[in-house]
Design a protein that fits this description.
By secondary structure, the chain is an alpha+beta fold. The chain has a domain at 35-124: Alpha-Beta Plaits (2-Layer Sandwich). The protein is 34% helix and 34% strand. The chain contains four helices and five strands, in the order αββαββααβ. The chain has helices at 2-14, 52-71, 98-105, 109-112; strands spanning 22-27, 30-44, 75-80, 87-93, 116-126. Strands 1, 2, 3, 4 and 5 form a five-stranded antiparallel β-sheet that branches. A hairpin with a 2-residue loop joins strand 1 (22-27) and strand 2 (30-44). The protein is elongated and about 60 Å long.
Length: 132
C-alpha cells in the first residue's frame, strides 16, 4: 500500500498543473497533511573576505536580515552547515514561490556583495513538523 501511495504522490508532483500548496491523504486511521515550502541552499560566493573585521560586519548584517525575515513569519528554518565548505547553510521559507524567496534573500548583504549565492526549489514537508 505504501509503495502505491508513494507512486501516486510522485506522479501528482511531476505534473506542472499541481499548484496547490497543501494536500492531505489518509493511511489507515491517520491523516497526513503535506505542505509545499521553499528550500534554499546558500553556497559560497565569489567574494571572499580576508579582513576579519569586514567578515564580522557582513555576518552581523546577514544574521539581522535572517532575523527580520523570521520575525515576518516568512522564514521558518535557517542554519549553517558544520565545517563550512562550498555549502554554507540552508533556509526554509513558508511562502508561495521560489521567485519570492530569491527576492527576499537577494536583499541579504552577504548575497548582494557576492559572499553567498542562492539555489532555491520547492520542498514538501509534513505540515506542523517540529525540530527538536
Amino acid at each position: 500500500m505504501k509503495k502505491i501511495l508513494f507512486a501516486v504522490l510522485l506522479t501528482a508532483f511531476s505534473f506542472p498543473s499541481f499548484s496547490q500548496r497543501e494536500f492531505s491523504y489518509t493511511e489507515g486511521d491517520t491523516t497526513y497533511t503535506m505542505k509545499r515550502y521553499v528550500f534554499m541552499l546558500l553556497e559560497s560566493g565569489e567574494t571572499k573576505s580576508k579582513d576579519s573585521t569586514e567578515a564580522a560586519y557582513f555576518q552581523e548584517q546577514h544574521l539581522a536580515h535572517l532575523n527580520q525575515m523570521a520575525q515576518s513569519g516568512k522564514l521558518i528554518v535557517a542554519g549553517p552547515f558544520e565545517g563550512g565548505g562550498e555549502h554554507r547553510g540552508l533556509l526554509i521559507f513558508d511562502i508561495e514561490t521560489v521567485e519570492e524567496a530569491l527576492q527576499l534573500e537577494g536583499e541579504d548583504p552577504m548575497v548582494k556583495t557576492g559572499r553567498l549565492k542562492m539555489n532555491a526549489f520547492y520542498w514538501w514537508g509534513a505540515k506542523g513538523t517540529l525540530l527538536k
